[in-house]
């Protein structure tokens, strides 16, 4: 048992160091890019313009990606560019002009997989142009199931009718006749005529009656005294 344990430790010490020297040697993933090309030389004859396409090969010369050809484009954008990227692999990036005869190179550069994104890569053979790798994020997300619960609350519409009644009040003016009360003053007598009135219009019969009463009283007093 001890011999097996010692052999296992010895094996790890020998081969484990080589595994840790290149930890990403076998790291690979499919990556998606947008590749911009700038200042490409015009390799077409006459007044024609380049018909570029992008070609990527690994260090063994195997083609890992090739884009469609873009007709008559001087500043091409290759979108999308996707391939299985090994971080430690060195890739040959080349832009070529699609011709009827042999295709012309518009420039190439060798870039490690871990350094594809991170700046401009200057092209050579011929010189002058450059390419730039940018990450391409998926524009379509995986389908998701969304459950939407809609709760409908009945809307009660209350119509309020307000009736305004204007009452017209007719005020009839009331005429009040003041009552005049005269205390201690009799109404003036009516007019007199004939023998009953004196020169000032007073009644003489009243004075005559009073005089007869006085005469009768005087006579009655004399009779009593005589007796």
Q: Would you write up a description of this structure?
A:
The protein is α+β, with helices and mostly antiparallel strands. Among the domains are: about 110 residues, Sandwich (Immunoglobulin-like); about 35 residues, no CATH class. About 20% of the residues lie in helices and about 25% in strands. The chain has two helices and eight strands. The strands form two sheets. A four-stranded antiparallel β-sheet has the order 4-1-8-7, with no helix packed on it. A four-stranded antiparallel β-sheet has the order 3-2-5-6, with no helix packed on it. It starts with a helix and ends with a helix. About 10% of the residues have low confidence.
CATH topology group of the domain at 24-135 = Immunoglobulin-like
Average pLDDT rating = 73
What class would the helix/strand composition place it in? alpha+beta
Give the termini distance in whole angstroms: 197 Å
Order of helices and strands: HEEEEEEEEH
Query: Strand count, sense and closure of the main sheet?
Result: 4 strands, antiparallel
Unreliable residue runs: 15-25, 180-186, 194-203
CATH class division of the domain at 24-135: Mainly Beta
CATH architecture of the domain at 24-135: Sandwich
In total, the number of strands is: 8
Task: Spell out the CATH superfamily of the domain at 24-135.
Answer: C2 domain
Q: Helical element count?
A: 2
- What general form does the structure show? rod-shaped
Q: What is the helix content?
A: 10-25%
Strand content: 25-35%
Strand order in the largest sheet: 4-1-8-7
Backbone CA Rg? 69 Å
Biased composition (Low complexity): 138-182
Signal peptide: 1-19
Pfam families: C2
InterPro entries: C2_dom, C2_domain_sf
């Amino acid at each position: 048992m001890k011999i097996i344990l010692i052999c296992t430790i010895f094996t790890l010490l020998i081969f484990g160091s080589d595994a840790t020297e290149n930890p990403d040697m076998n790291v690979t993933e499919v990556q998606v890019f947008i590749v911009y090309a700038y200042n490409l030389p015009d390799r077409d004859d006459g007044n024609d313009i380049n018909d570029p396409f992008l070609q990527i090969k690994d260090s063994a010369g195997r083609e890992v990606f090739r884009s469609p050809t873009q007709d008559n484009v001087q500043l091409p954008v290759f979108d999308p560019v996707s391939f299985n990227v090994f971080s430690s692999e060195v890739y040959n990036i080349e832009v070529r002009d699609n011709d009827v005869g042999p295709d012309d190179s518009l420039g190439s550069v060798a870039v490690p997989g871990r350094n594809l994104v991170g700046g401009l890569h200057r092209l050579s053979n011929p010189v002058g142009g450059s390419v730039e790798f940018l990450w391409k994020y998926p524009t379509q997300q995986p389908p998701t199931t969304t459950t939407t619960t809609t709760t409908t609350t009945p809307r009660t519409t209350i119509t309020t009718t307000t009736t305004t009644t204007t009452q017209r009040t007719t005020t009839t003016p009331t005429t009040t006749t003041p009552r005049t009360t005269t205390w201690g003053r009799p109404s003036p007598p009516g007019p007199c005529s004939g023998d009953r009135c004196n020169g000032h219009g007073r009644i003489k019969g009243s004075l005559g009656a009073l005089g007869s009463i006085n005469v009768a009283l005087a006579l009655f007093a004399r009779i009593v005294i005589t007796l």
